[in-house]
TrEMBL record:
Pfam families recorded: Glucosamine_iso
Ranges of residues in domain Glucosamine/galactosamine-6-phosphate isomerase: 11-226
Organism field: Streptomyces polyrhachis
EC number: 3.5.99.6
Protein name: Glucosamine-6-phosphate deaminase
GO molecular function, one term: glucosamine-6-phosphate deaminase activity
Length: 261
């Protein structure tokens, strides 16, 4: 996989936003897979700035959710639907009709999972999927030991992930749901291009295991090694445990092959 080491989170955001802009210029109706959490915010901010400056037309663009909490009431500010609308759809001026996401409040959650997998396929598939990574190597909410062939499904969150996410619920871990709908690893691998952004020293071990370790269910993100076009963008802190850091700096310095292989 390509590993691009950038100075800081802002530089990573600018780099990935540029890749999205290039994609939309080639394919105006591209389907963008979006992640939530604090890590991708610099990407969305840089992309919104480009849109406001008239640098790209997003009128036909579409976005797809990576995951969703189960059981939060409609309109809850920390549901991932609300977060994506607030941080991506509204700043980019997209229509809510351009948004695809699973129904975390469905009476039949399993049916909602299956329906979302079908909806992604009917939409033509995800062109570029933005990913973050957990400190334990999870992507989406595919926790350690998730099947590498898994499809969209309901998952139980580990206590570690619930503690990590408590900051979005006022620091109260008891308010964090126990279950989520997540695209499975197999579903994620269906995207044409995977772009993982990781920043901070706390992600260094997970990044090293993902990039340089074996493909193993204990590190779900390591499945990116199986993808024909995966790009990992990391700041210096997140790259600090990479044995091949100097090689990556020389090989991919600011010039990943965004347009495919």
């Amino acid at each position: 996989m390509e590993v691009v080491i950038v100075p800081d989170a802002a530089a990573g955001g600018e780099l990935i936003a540029g890749a999205v802009v290039d994609l939309l210029r080639r394919k105006p109706d591209a389907l963008l897979g979006v992640a939530t959490g604090s890590t991708p915010i610099p990407v969305y901010e840089a992309l919104a700035a480009t849109v406001r400056a008239g640098g790209v037309d997003v009128s036909q663009a579409r976005v797809a959710q990576l995951d969703e909490y189960v059981g939060l009431p409609a309109g809850h500010p920390e549901s991932y639907r609300s977060v994506v609308l607030r941080e991506v759809v509204e700043p980019l001026g997209l229509s809510p009709d351009a948004f695809l996401g699973p129904d975390g409040a469905a009476h039949d959650v399993q049916a909602a999972c299956e329906a979302y997998d079908k909806a992604l396929a009917w939409a033509g598939g995800v062109d570029l999927q933005l990913l973050g990574i957990g400190t334990d190597g999870h992507i989406g909410f595919n926790e350690p030991c998730s099947s590498l062939a898994s499809r969209t499904r309901i998952k139980t969150l580990t206590e570690r992930t619930r503690r990590d996410n408590a900051r979005f619920f006022g620091g109260d871990v008891d308010q964090v749901p126990h279950h989520v709908i997540t695209q499975g690893i197999g579903t994620i691998l269906d995207a044409r291009h995977l772009v993982l952004l990781a920043t901070g020293e706390g992600k260094a071990d997970a990044v090293a295991a993902t990039v340089e370790g074996p493909v193993a269910a204990i590190v779900p993100a390591s499945a990116l090694q199986l993808h024909p076009h995966a790009t990992v963008v990391v700041d210096e802190a997140a790259a600090s445990k990479l044995k091949l850091a100097d090689y990556f700096r020389q090989t991919y310095a600011g010039k990943p092959s965004w347009q495919g292989i």
